[in-house]
Amino acid sequence: MPDAAATESRTVPRVSHPLDPLTPDEIRRASSAVRRAHDLGAGMMFETVSLHEPEKSVVQGFKTGASFPREAFVCAFDRTNGQVFEARVDLVADTVVDWRHVPDVRPRILIDDITLVGEVARADPRFREALARRGIADVENVQVDPWSAGNYGLPDEEGRRLCHTFCWYRSEKNDNPYAHPIEGLCAVVDLDRAEVLRIDDHGAAELPRANRNYAARYRTVYRTDVKPLEIVQADGPSFTVEGNEVRWQKWRLRVGFNAREGLVLHAIGYEDGERLRPVLHRAALSEMVVPYGHLGGGHFRKNAFDVGEYGIGVLANSLTLGCDCLGAIRYFDAWLADSKGEPYCIPSAVCLHEEDFGILWKHTDLFTGEVDVRRARRLVVSSISTVGNYEYGAFWYFHQDGSIHFEMKATGIVNTAGLKPGEAPRYGTIVSPGVYAHYHQHIFNMRLDVAIDGERNRVVEVDTVALPVGPDNPHGNAFTIRESVLANELAAQRSVDFNAARYWKIESAEVRNALGQPTAYKLLPLSPVPAFASPKSSVGRRAAFMTRQLWVTAYHPDEIHAAGRYPNQSRGGDGLPAWTAADRPLVDTDIVVWHSFGLHHIPRPEDFPVQPVITAGFALHPSGFFTENPALDVPPAKSSMSCCVD
Ligand code: NI
Questions:
Q1: CB 409, CB 598: distance < 8 Å
Q2: Each residue of 123-143: pLDDT tens digit?
Q3: From the CA of 627, how far away is ligand 1's center (Å)?
Q4: Residue pLDDT, tens place only, 538-565
Q5: Domain count of the chain?
Q6: Any idea what the CATH number is for the domain that residue 18 is in?
């Protein structure tokens, strides 16, 4: 939520690089320029005011101190008629350089809408009647969660900006409402008219009354054997930060942030001797979807696209030392625009720190007894967002061996429903008497604008194949690899293959290592999930990215969001399926790799009343990028040096 006090106390960032996020002054200037040139009147709302990222050539050719273009992307709409417009603002000239109407799309659900939905629903007599039928008279204790409405072709919903809702009851102010689902009551709220379009009453279940609280305020008994565990970095951390650029253990990267994708990493490179070798031009979560598997009670509409429909950046937490992060921390604030186009700050939205990561490598010489071991540490760049009942923590890890890991941590409270009398819990797990958590999935799509030793790359699928037993494989033990170049976009829509131990390698077209191999990174799909929603279903059409673990596209600056720029209430078909229909060639050109991965969530009782972190992610490992273990030069830890001295 915009916090005026927090916004006041922040130091105002300066712009020193073309990829720096917009400053508060730039946000204000961008929205003012749009208002001056194209005022939409009293109904004007700003969905987005963010950096229009410069062309790659501007970033690559940038020299410190030199001037550079600076543009904002603005999405505004008129809530009196639902019309959506996009603008590009030249911030140097203070002028709108592009303004266009985007027909038949819906902007994101805004922060303003989140509170509006509850107020509108609770004031509606039909909603109150439905609550009364359930024996609930204290309407002020009813929480109304604003869910994206999706698109189910209902004629009365056509053309409107909507939220679909589910309701919960709080037995007191800080009570966990998800222990008390008000089953079967869904309001469809027209956000622009601020009115209830329709009440869908799917039939009541008894309100589960048992309180299930987890918060410290409710707990008096704790385990008593937790001793302090202090992280001491007497000489400070090993990273340096200049503006938004981070340097750590030969890695270089830039931290960016926007309302929609949240954390964005740019210009990731590795210092190899005198060379700064590019690895990724840009990496960000392009979309995610959470399809639920229950077919009735309005629950079939639960399939939030938390990035494109809400904005995972808008919903970022302010992180706190000692709780979210430990050690010597460097925080980055996020400056975003509210619905009036005014800047506000989420203080400490991104955390940067390093942590011990066990052993990096080790060998004991069996015959001499000599031991060589190095301890690993990793650099962590993270951000945590609260999307309704759930928390998502985006954690990037950089390692001393040249590898990069991404982990999405999911925690918070599972979405619950009330069991109707006599209903068998076929589509969920009972987590409390009368309360069940539906089967669902969280499927993420990471957009990786790869740049392995330059922009000209190719993707190679690597399968392992067993040779048939016979004269050529007399002992039946032989296996080898089969490499296939993914030559164009349709052929590059790929799924994991357990039986082939499949992975994908992104190779440089230009650079070979000293062994004569193309320099490369491999993408390891660590958390593949099959999508269970039919491709023909509404969510299947709208989130086609979830049907494949790998998509590869020819680079285009406007292709950023896997389900399209406007997934909210979309009919589907946008984003990856639309772009790849062109079947562009992918070999030795500027390409983008899109990886879908996720959590298949059959809830457990242990996920309630607050869920321990579960994770999904992937790894990028150097594969011929170096010619030997690049971490041989990591010095032994002081304690091991002393114990190794004869
Ligand atoms: Ni889940």
A1: no
A2: 999 999 999 999 999 999 999
A3: 41
A4: 999 999 999 999 999 999 999 999 999 9
A5: 3
A6: 3.10.450.40
